[in-house]
Specification:
Blueprint lengths: L1 E3 H7 L6 H10 L3 E8 L4 E14 L2 E10 L6 E5 L9 E11 L3 E2 L3 E3 L2 E3 L2 E2 L27 H5 L3 E7 L10 H11 L21 E4 L5 E10 L9 H9 L7 H13 L4 E4 L6 E6 L5 E3 L5 E3 L5 E4 L4 E4 L3 E2 L12 E8 L1 H11 L3 H8 L6 H16 L2 E9 L9 E4 H8 L5 H10 L3 E4 L3 E5 L10 H12 L17 H19 L3 E2 L5 E2 L1 H7 L6 E2 L10 E2 L4 H12 L5 E13 L7 E13 L15 H13 L7 E5 L5 E11 L2 E9 L1 H7 L5 E7 L20 E10 L4 H11 L5 E9 L8 E10 L8 H19 L2 E2 L2
Parallel strand pairs: 12-15, 26-30
Antiparallel strand pairs: 1-11, 2-11, 3-4, 3-6, 4-5, 6-7, 6-10, 8-9, 13-21, 13-22, 14-21, 15-18, 16-17, 18-19, 19-20, 23-25, 24-25, 27-29, 28-29, 30-31, 31-35, 32-33, 33-34, 34-35, 36-38, 36-39, 37-38
Helix pairs in contact: 1-4, 5-6, 6-9, 7-8, 13-16, 18-19
């Protein structure tokens, strides 16, 4: 918003210079983008009076004037302006005067007549627009006075920018309230200008879109003269605000908008069929604007119509049928309070304009009637006319009663200042808060124009900007933190894991913690969603319970870009509902990885193959082996949501559940645009008990001895349990036990399978002998036979 400093000082004129005033605007929370000094670029222009006006004998377009500028002799001036006449007070550029662009006025002979100067229009003085009319001053204007001094043009043009939570920064009234509070003064109260009703004619209002339009106010004004000159005081203010128009009604609307922050609209009454209907547009319904512009609407767009046609869309987007023109005599002046969501749909469709910006930021609901009365008063004083009564229709009661409790101790703790209760109360009073102070707190209700004040911290912020941020000591905040060693351990595990995965050809990705609830429900249909109350968008409206949805989206994205071999991983927080936790939300730190496509890129040496479950399992075991023994890790076959029922397993560390691994479920392949060779794992480092760091041991210099056995066991027995039993048997010996073969055959009766297991023995102190190894192997086979009815194959 742009405005002149003198306009602001008409409302509040603190005894401070311009620089300090600009700083106070900034400290009130409204950014001053820049300040531009405006100085007139003309010199020597004075006020004169036409004492004689006759037509030029050689031209009907020229007039010969005798002009009094307060000196002994009258000036002889030839002028072609249509509006000059006897007795008129005008702006006279005398010989030697300088106009904009360094134009110097000299004596000239025009059609045989000497001209000792010229009469000036505002445009010739570098102001306003070109209307080919010379300036006409009031009859009380003193002759001979310098025009520059009389017009008081030297001013500071201030441009401010405000955030979406500070709509009060978009009006002179709002800025004045802030400056008054900072300077501990008061602005003049708004005087309700109730214009006398002369005619009883009013228009019917029917609000059909009750959720979208909360309040609509209208008034008929008849017999106006739209072709009058715009008053200079209004011209000057709107010129400095870059909102000056050739249409007097538009100028009045802009003036009210900048001064009190209330958007109004004016429609040509003669083209409205009896009543106003506020409704939602129909699909493919059109509104026709000036210059043959046609806009197709949809059912999300709020419109103002009569029984036959659309009249306008909020934001002063008017149909050409009801636009104001030079022949307009009767108007309908309107003000509307509209749901912000409806405004967002209009902005998407039409693009934003000045009025839509005000609607989008929010307007004070209690100033609607005042704005209508104020605009009516200006219209009648400038354009004449006879007003009717105000018609209004409300769909909801406009009650602003957002009571907030401000705790005295919390205020002091957050700000680091020991505030005096009286000082806080004065600041809140100066900002027009309603307040009730108890022993240790205030119950406050913000003013109607500050509907962004919702919580206690908002009130504290308001107090600080008036108290002065420069008065707050920059004392560092102190907090005694009980650092958890587990967090340090977790960070260490992540670093190790990342290094291993990167060396294996994985790329790290970072996704938002917000995801699409539809995707989450596909993968985890039985988990409750933690939805956001104010999401960035619909596909980012849910907190993730797993890293998989984001990673699978990455896989789909890269697959669509012809990537045939993808390895990615991510670490981050996931969230789930847990009433035992703080705020009923549990946060866990996860590490997850996904592989998809070909195992290696195509080359001349290796045969191309798809990645499989064991490729990912091997990478995961490399990670786990870096900080714990694989003997403590167990993969248990289980059915897991989102994973293939035949290729999925849960992961346990010392019987603590730490995560899952498996292939993507076939039902999700098409839904998520991934292929069948997509495998995932996810582990939670929060679920690890304290891990003791691995100790470095000296390598034995004695030789190893290997023994292999093949045993028959039931198909239903998990291989892991057999290996685990063997390891427990040799718990006091250094033996490496590996499964190297699994064999099924129809010749095996009663659904048996053959396991090939290798045992590699080594001692730190001596060379082992065959006899003692054979004895240990026989005892181990006996234990397997007793536990699993294992039979040794020969």
């Amino acid at each position: 918003m742009k405005f002149s400093e003198k306009w602001l000082r008409e409302w509040i004129d603190p005894k401070v210079n311009s620089k300090i005033l600009h700083e106070q605007i900034s400290s009130s929370g409204i950014e001053v983008e820049h300040v531009k000094k405006f100085k007139s670029t003309f010199y020597g222009i004075v006020v004169g009076k036409i004492v004689q006006c006759i037509l030029h004998s050689q031209s009907h377009n020229l007039k010969i004037l005798k002009v009094d500028i307060g000196k002994k002799e009258l000036l002889n001036i030839v002028c072609g302006a249509s509006n000059c006449c006897n007795g008129m007070k005008v702006a006279v550029a005398t010989v030697g005067s300088i106009l904009p662009n360094n134009i110097i006025i000299n004596k000239r002979v025009l059609k045989g007549e000497l001209s000792e100067g010229m009469l000036c229009s505002f445009f010739e003085l570098g102001l306003f627009f070109n209307d080919n009319k010379i300036i006409e001053f009031s009859k009380k204007t003193p002759v001979g006075i310098n025009v520059n001094d009389y017009l008081s043009l030297n001013d500071n043009i201030i441009k401010v920018a405000t955030t979406s939570n500070r709509p009060d920064g978009l009006s002179i009234l709002g800025l004045s309230r802030n400056i008054a509070a900072i300077n501990n003064s008061k602005i003049s109260p708004l005087i309700y200008k109730s214009v006398p009703v002369i005619i009883e004619k009013k228009i019917d209002i029917d609000i059909q879109a009750k959720k979208e339009c909360i309040n609509f106010v209208g008034r008929i004004v008849q017999n106006i003269d739209i072709n009058v000159d715009i008053p200079f005081w209004m011209k000057k203010k709107l010129f400095f605000s870059d909102l000056l128009s050739e249409n007097i009604i538009t100028n009045i609307m802009n003036y009210v908008l900048i001064e009190i922050g209330q958007p109004l609209n004016v429609l040509n009454l003669d083209n409205i069929n009896n009543s106003i209907i506020i409704r939602m547009a129909k699909d493919k319904e059109n509104i026709f604007l000036e210059k043959n512009i046609e806009i197709r609407l949809n059912k999300n767009i709020l419109v103002v119509s009569d029984k036959e046609k659309i009249l306008s869309v909020p934001g002063n987007i008017n149909s050409y049928v009801v636009n104001i023109n030079k022949n307009t005599k009767n108007i309908l002046l309107t003000s509307s309070l509209i749901n912000r969501k409806s405004i967002s749909y209009i902005i998407k469709k039409m693009k934003s304009n000045k009025v839509l910006e005000y609607y989008n930021y929010g307007i004070d609901p209690f100033l609607q009637n005042y704005a209508i009365e104020y605009a009516t008063d200006l219209i009648i004083k400038i354009c004449g006319g006879i007003p009717g009564p105000i018609s209004s229709k409300k769909t909801n009661s406009i009650v602003y009663n957002n009571k907030i409790r401000l705790n005295y101790e919390k205020l002091n703790k957050i700000t680091g200042v020991s505030f005096d209760v009286i000082v806080v109360s004065k600041i809140l009073h100066s900002l027009d808060y309603q307040l009730n102070f108890q022993e240790k707190f205030w119950d406050v209700i913000p003013p109607s124009w500050r509907f962004d004040i919702l919580i206690e911290e908002d009130v504290i912020s308001d107090i600080l900007r008036i108290y002065g941020y420069n008065k707050i000591c920059s004392t560092p905040l102190k907090e005694f933190l009980n650092c958890n060693k587990k967090n340090e351990l977790t960070d260490s595990l992540f670093k190790k894991s990342a290094i291993i995965l990167i060396n294996q050809g994985y790329y790290e990705v970072i996704n938002y913690g917000f995801i699409d609830p539809k995707i989450q429900n596909l993968i985890f249909p039985n988990k409750k969603n933690l939805l956001l109350s104010n999401p960035i968008s619909q596909d980012m409206s849910c907190m993730r319970v797993s890293l998989w949805p984001g990673l699978l989206k990455n896989i789909s994205y890269n697959k669509n870009r012809q990537q045939n071999s993808i390895r990615i991983f991510e670490s981050g927080l996931c969230f789930s509902i847990d009433k035992t936790e703080n705020l009923s939300v549990k946060q866990e730190v996860f590490l997850a990885a996904v592989i998809s496509g070909n195992y290696i890129k195509e080359n001349w040496y290796d045969k191309t193959r798809k990645m499989d479950f064991y490729d990912l399992k091997g990478d995961l075991e490399s990670i786990l082996e870096s900080f714990c023994k694989l003997d403590h890790i167990e993969f248990r076959r289980e059915i897991i949501s989102g994973l293939h029922p035949e290729q999925s397993a849960s992961i346990y560390f010392k019987n603590y559940f730490i995560g899952n691994i498996g292939a993507i479920h076939p039902r999700l392949e098409k839904e998520l645009n991934v292929n069948s060779s997509t495998f995932l794992f996810e582990i939670s480092f929060n679920n690890f008990p304290d891990i003791k760091p691995l100790k470095i041991q000296e390598i034995s210099k004695f030789p190893t001895i290997r023994r292999d056995i093949a045993i028959l066991i039931s198909e239903d027995i998990a291989v892991y349990t057999v290996i685990k039993k063997c390891k427990n048997f040799f718990i006091n010996q250094k033996v490496e036990i590996n499964l190297f073969d699994i064999y099924f055959c129809k010749e095996f009766y009663n659904k048996k399978k053959s396991l090939g297991i290798s045992f590699i023995f080594q001692n730190q102190e001596r060379t082992l002998k065959d006899n003692e190894i054979n004895l240990m192997m026989n005892d181990c086979i006996g234990v397997l036979n007793k536990k699993f009815q294992a039979i040794l194959r020969k």
